[in-house]
Design a protein that fits this description.
RNA Polymerase Alpha Subunit, Chain A, domain 2, five-stranded mixed beta sheet, 2 domains, 4 helices
Length: about 190
């Protein structure tokens, strides 16, 4: 047996067998890794998150009220795509009011920007909104305080406020209903 190890052809044959075993091992390892990666990519998952509800409307012309600020969205699909969508939030949840006029409307909630393999379920399919003409109005700021809180024998000077005027913007009917803007001063009883 000792003479077998001294032969050159033995080392060549042994090296060849060892090389074949190593190639087979590496090839098998890569096939298993690729299969695991494919399984992870195609594994389905479901995740929920709250997304800001965006409004598509001419904000210079209209003022919209009545819609929720956030909507619950449930995404379902391949694990990698759903995780990516949840982490980056590079899709949009919105209502399109561009073809709506003044008044109350029931409008569908839409989603855009998701991969085709990802499905989306919304906590609500539509929302009721109130669209009114936008109105801005500048009003002076008045100062209010309890005159009876000042101790007897003391006079109140002329109060000043900064800024002296403010701009109020909102739905036309609500802005028309505002008769004044007042900064309320808290004066402790018996102030000197």
């Amino acid at each position: 047996m000792h003479k077998l190890f001294e032969q050159k052809w033995f080392y060549k044959l042994f090296s060849l067998l060892l090389a074949i075993v190593l190639v087979a091992f590496v090839d098998n390892t890569q096939v298993n890794t690729n299969n695991q990666t494919k399984v992870q990519e195609t594994a389905s998952t479901e995740k929920s998150l709250k997304m800001a509800l965006q409004v598509s409307v001419d904000t210079d012309k209209y003022y919209v009220t009545g819609y929720p600020s956030k909507v619950k969205v449930t995404l379902e699909g391949p694990n990698a795509l759903v995780t990516s969508a949840v982490n980056t939030q590079n899709f949009r949840v919105y209502i399109d009011l561009s073809k709506q006029g003044v008044g109350s409307h029931q409008v569908p909630i839409k989603v855009s920007g998701l991969p085709n393999q990802v499905s989306c379920k919304l906590s609500q399919k539509s929302v009721k909104v109130n669209i009114q003409k936008r109105k801005s109005r500048t009003l002076p700021v008045q100062i209010g305080y309890n005159k009876n809180a000042v101790a007897q024998g003391y006079d109140i000077g002329t109060p000043t406020v900064s800024p002296e005027t403010v701009e109020v913007t909102g739905a036309q009917s609500e802005v028309k209903a505002i008769d004044r803007v007042q900064a309320q001063l808290v004066v402790p009883n018996g102030s000197t």
